[in-house]
Design goal:
The protein is α/β, with parallel strands linked by helices. It is built from eight helices and seven strands, in the order βαβαβαβαβαβαααβ. Helix 5 links the parallel strand 5 and strand 6.
Length: about 260
């Protein structure tokens, strides 16, 4: 349960931070003492979450944010540094599946590029932009949200699998390169989780039942299940943890 101080005083950016895993992470970070920039493209949800969290003072700022645009990363990180003077945590959580679910033969170059822009290139941009800021305060933590399908395959999803796998391996490269700066980079790999992005799939009883049967713990994940793993990698409890893959999947890929 929250203690209220696991990331006390830290400043974080959470992409896709207004819904699903990102929203759960934002709420948990604030409850554990951090200030959070909620980076998202959903103004209604972002503004509502900001207002709710700030009822006792400013602990969250919503910023409309296309994570595939490097200039926007530079602007928001610059704002963070001007306002709070430090950046401790970046959670690259924004993602997409949709057209990425197509099998190889049905995958178009346009769909491939669109999925990679959000699931892979944006992860690189968020990490790249965070590094100089984190270096100024002696280190930091980057948490890149991948997927179990960045580790294993499935009957569909060529672009999604490849883009999430790229985020996984990129995280390892960045972890090695910036360990001397005390900047830790890790990836998180959720299994089947109930989020707005998976609502269309998990609302189909046949698919939901099948996925529950594939999961040894017998249920689908909740956003909080993933958020607690992200919190661990963001806080000082994991100060000797970098370059890992934290799988949170109810045991699915342990079969």
């Amino acid at each position: 349960m929250p203690t209220g101080n696991r990331i006390e005083g830290k400043i974080a950016i959470v992409t896709g931070g207004a819904s699903g895993i990102g929203e759960a992470t934002t709420r948990l970070f604030v409850s554990e003492g951090a200030k959070v920039v909620i980076a998202d493209i959903d103004d209604e949800k972002g503004n509502a979450l900001e207002a709710e969290l700030n009822h006792d003072g400013e602990v969250a700022r919503y910023r409309q944010f296309d994570v595939t645009q490097e200039n926007r990363w530079i602007e928001v990180v610059g704002e963070v540094m001007d306002t709070w003077g430090r950046l401790d945590v970046v959670v690259n959580n924004a993602g997409m599946s949709g057209v990425g679910r197509a099998r190889v033969e049905e995958t178009t170059v346009e769909n491939w590029d669109a999925v990679f822009a959000v699931n892979s290139t944006a992860v690189m941009l968020g990490t790249k932009t965070a590094i100089p800021a984190m270096r100024k305060n002696g280190g930091g933590s980057v948490v890149n949200v991948s997927s179990i399908f960045g580790i294993v395959g499935s009957p569909a999803g060529a672009a999604y699998h490849a883009s999430k796998g790229a985020a996984r391996t990129f995280s390892k490269a960045a972890a090695v390169q910036y360990a001397p700066d005390n900047i830790r980079v890790n990836s998180v790999h959720p299994g089947f989780t109930d989020t707005p992005m998976t609502l269309d799939i998990h609302s189909q009883k046949e698919i939901r039942d099948a996925r529950e049967k594939m999961t040894p713990l017998g249920r689908l994940g909740l956003p909080d299940d993933i958020a607690y793993g992200i919190l661990y990698l963001a806080c000082d409890e994991s100060s000797w943890v970098t370059g890992i893959e934290l799988v949170i999947d109810g045991g699915e890929i342990a079969w």
